[in-house]
Structure formats: C-alpha cells, structure tokens
Amino acid sequence: MLKRRYEFKAEFFDTDPMGIMWHGNYVKYLEMARCKLLDEIGYNYIKMQDNGFTLPIVKMDLKYINPIYFNEYFIVEISVIECDITLKFKYTLLSKDELTIAKASTTQVAVTLNKETLYSIPNDLKFALNQ
C-alpha cells in the first residue's frame, strides 16, 4: 500500500523547558504527515467534505522511544495499512540518522456530514489510496 516520508523540524513552541518536544505535539506532526499524503493523492479533507463525508479518528496509539529536541529535523514515515471498513495509518518517526523516535497508528471511520457512520471507506478514496 501507499507509503511516504516527510521531513519536519521541532520548533521552539513545540518544546518544553528542557528543550524536548512536548509529548502532545507529536500528534500534530502525525496530522501534518497525513494531510500531506492526502494532498499528494488529490483526496484531502476538503474533497471528502465536498463528497459528503469526513474521516474522524476513532483510535490512536503512540509509543515514545527517543526524544526529539528543539531545532532537530526528523522524519515522519506514514503508511496506509488498512483501507476497507476503516482507514488505518502506521507512522514511524525517525531522526535524520534513522534512529526510531516513536511509533504510532491512527484509525479513522467514514461518517456522513449528517454524522451517520458509513460502514466502508468510500470507493473513490480507496481508489486514490491504491494508486
């Protein structure tokens, strides 16, 4: 399935007084990587809404392994690992020298704009993710 790598930099506002990225900010970079991937395949959240649905996250797992420091560049590797009833992404955060920083996953479900659960990912999104 689809896999991408994106580089980011830990900004001052991401870090705590020790110069280490605050644990809650990791989620922001998962979101940024996912949005970049969706933009690249031409099926972002705006297009989903235009097609009558959204994809809220219903589950997130995040394991911290090594810290990210202020001003440090790091990579978010994102992979689609399921696209059927749910859409599931796997993430690996890596230092520039490929040291594993964190591992994560998110699970999303398709919901109409009227908040009715769809029990399958819409076919046009499945198609875009399998290109």
What is the H/E string? EHHEEEEEEH
Please write the CATH class name: Alpha Beta
CATH architecture: Roll
CATH H-level superfamily title:
Hotdog Thioesterase
**Radius of gyration, Cα only, in angstroms?**
16 Å
Total strand count, please? 7
Identify low-pLDDT runs: none
Question: Looking across the biggest beta sheet, what order are the strands in?
Answer: 1-4-5-6-3
Give a quick rundown of the structure:
The chain has three helices and seven strands. It is α+β, with helices and mostly antiparallel strands and 131 residues long. The protein has one domain (3-129): Hotdog Thioesterase (Thiol Ester Dehydrase, Chain A, Roll), CATH 3.10.129.10.
Describe it.
The structure is a single chain. By secondary structure, the protein is α+β, with helices and mostly antiparallel strands. It has a single domain (3-129), classed as Hotdog Thioesterase (Thiol Ester Dehydrase, Chain A). 22% of the residues lie in helices and 37% in strands. The protein contains 3 helices and 7 strands; from the N terminus they run E-H-H-E-E-E-E-E-E-H. The strands form 2 sheets. The chain has a 5-stranded antiparallel beta sheet, with helices on one face. Strands 2-7 form a two-stranded antiparallel ribbon. The protein is elongated. The chain starts with a strand and ends with a helix.
Write the layout of secondary structure elements.
Layout: E1 3-9, H1 25-40, H2 45-50, E2 53-54, E3 57-64, E4 73-83, E5 87-95, E6 100-108, E7 111-112, H3 123-129
Antiparallel strand pairs: 1-4, 2-7, 3-6, 4-5, 5-6
